[in-house]
Amino acid sequence: MTEVVAFQDLSADEREAQERKLREIWRTPCGWRYWTSVNNTQIGLWYGAAAFIFMLFAGVLALLVRVQLAVPENGFLSADLFNQAFTLHGTVMMFLFAVPIFEAVAIFLLPSMLGARELPFPRLSAFGFWSFALGGVFVCGSIFFNAAPNSGWFMYPPLATDKEYSGIGADIWLLGLSFIEVASIAAAVELIVGIMKCRAPGMRVNIMPLFAWYLLIVAGMILFAFPPLIAGDILFEMQRMFNWPFFDAERGGDPLLWQHLFWIFGHPEVYIIFLPAIAIMAMIVPTFAQRPIVGYSWIVLAAVGTGFLSFGLWVHHMFATGLPQISLAFFSAASEAVAIPTGVQIFVFIATLLAGRVIFSVPMLFGTGGLAVFVIGGLTGVMVALVPFDWQAHDTYFVVAHLHYVLIGGMLFPVVAGIYYYYPLINARKLSDRLGKIAFWIMFAGFNVAFFPMHLVGLRGMPRRVFTYPADIGWDWFNLVSTVGAFVFAAGVVVVVIDVLRPKHRQPKEQINPWNAGTLEWISEPEENWGVRSIPIITSRYPIWDQPDLLEDINAGRYYLPDAQDGARETLVTSVLDARPIQCLRVGGTSILTMVAAFSLGGVFIALTFHWWIVTIFCAVLTLAAIVAWLWTATAEIPRAEFRDIGLGKKLPLYNSGPRSVGWWGMFITMAGDGTAYASLMFGYFFYWTIHEDFTAGHAGPGVAWPLLAAGLFTLAWLAMLLARRVNASDRPGMTRAALLLSAALTLAGCLAGIAGPHRSGMDPTAHVYPAIVWVVAIWTVAHGAIGIVMQAYCLARSLAGRMSARHDMDMHNVVLYWHFLVITAVTSFGVVGLFPAVR
Amino acid sequence: MRLLPKEVESLWTLFTGPTIWAVHFLVCYVAVAIYCEKARTGPFTFAEMRLALVLVTLLALAGIVLSAWLAWRQWGFGSGDPPHDAPTREDRLLFQGFATLLLSGLSFVAVLFVAVPLVLIEACQP
Amino acid sequence: MAAPLVLPGCAGGQSALDPAGREAAEVYDLFVVMVIGGGVIWLAVIGLLVHACRRRRRTWSEEGAGRLIAWGGVAFPVVALFALLAYAVWLMPSIRPWLDRSVPEPAMIDVTGEQFWWRIRYPAEDGMAAFETANELRLPVGERVAFSLRAADVIHSFWIPSLGGKMDMIPGRTNVLSLLPTKTGVYQAPCAEFCGASHAYMAFSVIVMDTKAYDDWRRRQAAGNRPGGSEGERLFAHHGCAGCHSVRGVTPVAGLGPDLTRFSDRRTVGAGALANTPENVARFIRNPSAIKPGATMPAFDMLSQGDIAAIAEFLTGRP
């Protein structure tokens, strides 16, 4: 049954006044300040444009690679430049295009698709974008100084830890990309909280758009896939910078640990790229089949199933490393199993088309063409997932063909379909049908000509990443054909670019929702920044099809939040399952702080690359200051009134703390990612234990006393935090401050005790991997303790400044949540290094 | 049989099946990885470890069947067919039940797949 | 002499599609099965997709479409993938002990990957002495051989496409690979893991011979070169070549660079970089990194043409 809503109609004047106010509050700043905007439409657009520019750059690199390989014994590129080109091609396509483009699309589309004004943390999106853009330019720019990474996008040590070979390129890769990974995790936090908590009232989980389902899963995957790489990056950079031997076999390290950490990230990454593109397909197919999707639950099954299974595949990149064959077979089995949910999705699309009446259009052309390509990639994927076949195909051009069939068919074609489909949301005009068709056929033909022969040349023995090959070995024709195909394909991409960039002011504007789609993103008008004029009550999966007069009612401001109060940007927070409204959320507006924070954090990473220690410290302090200022001014603000009339006779609180607030969710999700990175470090600890008969190799451990003392102190500090929260809730600010101070003192003592263990036993981290990994675990924990102290100081300051009270205790809840994670980390770290492998 | 109250309403029940798969997979992988590195000092033979893992597999399958049964109940034992797209709590529950059932099915198959090597492979290395 | 066994044609076979070993043949059969199956599946899926996009056709009911998902998207893939998985796992060597435990372990040939060449050590066997060689592997046909694979510097990967799958060579680890060549012939084997600037120039030749020729070759190798007192031989020691390269029987053992004993038998110079001719050897000595970027051997372009030619003649046995 649907809720009965009693609309109240306003006069035209009142409506206009509301609109003026809304427009003013959601206004995009002018002049240079335009770039300080945090609105999702701008951020989404910039994000997408930047990702696309990086894609074109990486495409040019691919063409250079193809020119070099066109004929045998070619001298077009030197070996070193070739190695830089293919490394950067893979790196940029993966980290600077494939993942960010989905973040871009999500940030752009999600709010209006969910019927929200904004995502819950708009400034976090802006921070993510600026981090991404800066990191991307840094990484890409390196090739112009002949300093690009040249060890492959997988960066296997010991080649990549060999400073003589890899120069500064490897540091640029490690630090530049760590910075971008931070941006990705920021986006993941934003998207998860946005999808779970900011849907329009009534949009229950069973009627939420499939795009949101997919994005929820993908953001969750990012949260568990990227942190292992960050942990790996830390170990790697410690080896490069300070000679800690994590991957040096002579001192007990093992190059394979990097491969594990890299591929625990690297395989889910493929699905992180693929699922959002399929999500776009899941929006396009119903529109052009003119009916709701058949098998909504099947798609949810496929998305969730793929999300899980994708974490059990990583070793299939390591089938030839000599791991026990039974382990290989487990991963082979999981790799076969993941084909099932993938197949389900394709059949859901076919079934939907069969059950509908199909209007064939350019988006459909790219979509179905992409599927035809992708299915080949999927089938070869089933092949290479079989261990014996992979032993032949691994690291040959067969795999190059396979992965391009998967990624271009499963990601690039659907993304271009998405561009043709969603372009009217950007510019109120469609792209050209004619150019679209031309572009598709050129791309489709060029792609197959370029990549199909690679299957054969790979099986004929051509390994990947060779900068040249002998003439008499029978690969020349295949390679020449591939190169020609690559240029044809590139020409098709150029046609798309021309179509997007050509001036369209003479073209008449389309009406709203030109494809007659059913989902909510189509109600938004490109000129308006507010997302939706008023936040509707949703009762269908395809509200525009099923809810009569929805568009008119929304735009007449007949639903929730039709006006703006207190000059604040507002959106609704709803419950996770049934989307009942629970809070009116005020989100951050235009600010330069995010940019300052992103650029100074970028400064930290860049200065580290060049070992400019003083600049590093300066930038780190600036970053901290910017983040604190950002939090201080824009979060957990105590509202003037407790409740806000959101219209339709409903009042909602403006302030929530604990699990009811989005900030708490943001903290929880961030810490889940952080915990994953930590778990990866501990995986490293036990990994070294398994591969060595005596893991310590006779080196002294940190002893038992100091680590256990540290664990005890951290536990006491945690208890003091629980006490602080409790006394704060009973409105005793003096006691609260005392408890905070006590906890901070205990934490400080805990940190010192944690360091004292390895320090006093004289553990030398450059001598062997055992002291090195103990130090890393201790430093990680102590660094988190230090951040905890900063948070306590922040709470103390908030309490002193009257910005935190018994009722308004969001900061306290979030910091205690952090402490839950911290105490688990500390007890695990110090328990393990103190007691394992053996008490001495 | 009321193992769990029928009203358990959570997004997380959806993930029961895949989580069991993940735990099973991890146990198999870790057991084998440690066994094959430490075989010389370990007290078990390969066959014994295999047997233990087969038991873990059966346990996992049983867990998934249980989760499927609970989901089936939530789906009203198949009473309400998809699409489950009404804006009601009831349809939302049916949807969750059905999706959980499908996921349990996938997890069941995935666990079976992972069990194939346990049946066929006889040693760490040839 | 075994020279006639070294078949003509500069490049040997290097294709997984033309198997000459048991492992490669098994994988080839698996591949053929998958290509046929995959082709049929692709045609069926794309046929359905194209049909679905046609304008004039019957519209399916929602139930019918749902059944298509259940059967086409779930039931068929589950069965097909299960069968395929079992087939492939069946081909893995680790199930072989169960099939055949009676075959004795073959002696291991040690192969070490170095930037950018292959150090090869044959074990003592059947009364023949152990010896070291480089960049060329000779194997007896019809006998199972096992390799013990290591890396000296970075990760390399050992792969003879015509005989079977690859196995990485990882610093700090020893991997084992076992192959059974079934056809005599010359095969090429590239390094399959990216290992630096000259990854493209890191290959070795594999010559599969009948048992008798193989035994002859081993005996000759174990015996080493016979000192001939040539000018090249003297210059080889005089200019310091012998500091890195052994020519057993002529120079003291030196292990830094590839062993050059009976180099005249080899097919290539520079680990597959060039054909083994006196001119190419001379070119290589003059400036190795012009041919192999990143090669660790220094250039000897300060030597006179005549000296280089003499050394090349000493190594190749041809003027």
From TrEMBL, chain A:
Show the stretches that span the lipid bilayer: 43-65, 85-114, 126-148, 172-195, 207-231, 270-289, 296-317, 337-359, 371-391, 403-423, 435-457, 477-501, 587-606, 612-634, 664-691, 703-724, 736-757, 769-796, 817-839
Pathway named in the protein's UniProt entry = Energy metabolism; oxidative phosphorylation
Q: Which GO terms describe its molecular function?
A: cytochrome-c oxidase activity; heme binding; metal ion binding
- Domain (Cytochrome oxidase subunit I profile) spans 20-551
Q: Which InterPro entries match?
A: Cyt_c_oxase-like_su1_dom, Cyt_c_oxase-like_su1_sf, Cyt_C_Oxase_1, Cyt_c_Oxase_su1_BS, Cyt_c_oxidase_su1_bac, Cyt_c_oxidase_su3-like_sf, Cyt_c_oxidase_su3_a-hlx
Membrane-related topology note: Multi-pass membrane protein
Task: Give the protein's recorded name.
Answer: cytochrome-c oxidase
Origin species, per record, is Mycoplana azooxidifex
TrEMBL record, chain B:
The membrane-spanning stretches of this chain are 20-39, 51-72, 92-121
What UniProt keywords apply to this chain's record, in alphabetical order? Membrane, Transmembrane, Transmembrane helix
The protein in question is named Uncharacterized protein
What is the originating organism of this protein?
Answer: Mycoplana azooxidifex
Automatic annotation (TrEMBL), chain C:
Q: What Gene Ontology biological process does one annotation of this record name?
A: ATP synthesis coupled electron transport
Principal localization? membrane
Which Gene3D superfamilies does this one have? Answer: Cupredoxins - blue copper proteins
Q: Which GO terms describe its molecular function?
A: copper ion binding; cytochrome-c oxidase activity; heme binding; oxidoreductase activity
Report the residue ranges that make up the Cytochrome c domain in this protein: 227-319
Q: Which GO terms describe its cellular component?
A: membrane
Q: How does it sit in the membrane?
A: Multi-pass membrane protein
Per UniProt, the keywords (alphabetical) are:
Copper, Electron transport, Heme, Iron, Membrane, Metal-binding, Respiratory chain, Transmembrane, Transmembrane helix, Transport
Q: Can you state which reaction this protein catalyses?
A: 4 Fe(II)-[cytochrome c] + O2 + 8 H(+)(in) = 4 Fe(III)-[cytochrome c] + 2 H2O + 4 H(+)(out)
Is the Metal-binding keyword given for this protein?
yes
- Keyword field contains Glycoprotein: no
Per the database record, which ranges form the Cytochrome oxidase subunit II copper A binding domain? 104-220
Concerning CDD domains, the annotation shows:
CuRO_CcO_Caa3_II
Q: Give the transmembrane region(s).
A: 31-53, 65-92
Query: Out of the domains of life, which is the source?
Result: Bacteria
Q: Which Pfam families match?
A: COX2, Cytochrom_C
Subcellular location per the Swiss-Prot or TrEMBL entry: Membrane
The record describes the protein's role as: Subunits I and II form the functional core of the enzyme complex. Electrons originating in cytochrome c are transferred via heme a and Cu(A) to the binuclear center formed by heme a3 and Cu(B).
Q: Which family does it belong to?
A: Belongs to the cytochrome c oxidase subunit 2 family.
Q: Which NCBIfam families match?
A: CoxB
Protein known as: Cytochrome aa3 subunit 2
Which lineage?
Bacteria, Pseudomonadati, Pseudomonadota, Alphaproteobacteria, Hyphomicrobiales
